[in-house]
Design brief:
Elements: E1 4-7, H1 16-22, H2 26-35, E2 37-43, E3 46-57, E4 60-68, H3 77-91, E5 96-102, H4 106-114, E6 118-123, H5 126-130, E7 136-137, E8 140-141, E9 145-151
The structure holds coenzyme A (COA).
């Protein structure tokens, strides 16, 4: 299975449906798209994954809205996307990569730690402050943002 991971072309529409898997707020997704670089993963020219890289501080980027199409999840593609983001950061002489996820996002917390990210902090009640709707996952409310980082 050959996966091509590349920058979204200026002529292509951003894969909103995919990005919304990672964040239920279209307004927030669009805001990140306007500030960051969107990368897509394609198999036989069909887009099945995406993430946005956003420079947040000098030498620091954040991986935002990483997502794999539901029927392609659980096959190692998410890990490939995270490693690819790390490679891109290295090429751009970035020193720190950050990522954030919900306290209820157990699979995502496993994925990021398997890729070498360490927990740096907790932004308590982030999802209560920034989202109108309550979010539930794995039987618990998503309230806090768990912040993780990877030092290159
Ligand atoms: N439950 C348990 N473990 C999970 C998991 C889940 N739902 N999702 C990922 N993992 C872990 C596994 O332990 C796996 O490790 P292994 O290969 O050693 O078994 C590791 O993560 C990598 O899994 P992988 O198959 O590469 O992930 P994926 O292709 O399914 O992509 C996401 C992972 C998170 C990108 C994908 O599930 C997704 O798009 N989810 C919806 C969007 C989302 O939540 N994005 C993140 C927002 S913070």
């Amino acid at each position: 299975m050959d996966i091509e991971i590349r920058l979204l072309k200026a002529t292509e529409k951003p894969p909103l449906e995919l990005l919304l898997l990672a964040d239920p707020s279209e307004a927030i997704v669009r805001e990140y798209l306007s500030r960051g670089k969107c990368y897509v993963a394609a198999i036989s020219n069909e887009i099945i994954g995406a993430f946005v890289l956003l420079q947040t501080r000098p030498e620091t980027i954040e991986i935002i809205n990483i997502a794999v199409r539901e029927d392609c999840q659980g096959r190692g593609i998410g890990k490939k996307l995270v490693w690819n983001a790390i490679e891109k950061a290295k090429e751009e002489r970035i020193k720190t990569i950050e990522i954030g996820t919900g306290n209820s996002s157990i699979g995502q917390l496993l994925l990021y730690q398997k890729c070498g990210f360490r927990i740096t902090g907790i932004d308590r009640d982030f999802f209560i402050r920034h989202y109108d709707e309550e979010i539930y996952e794995n039987g618990i409310q998503c309230r806090d943002m768990i912040r993780l980082s990877f030092d290159i």
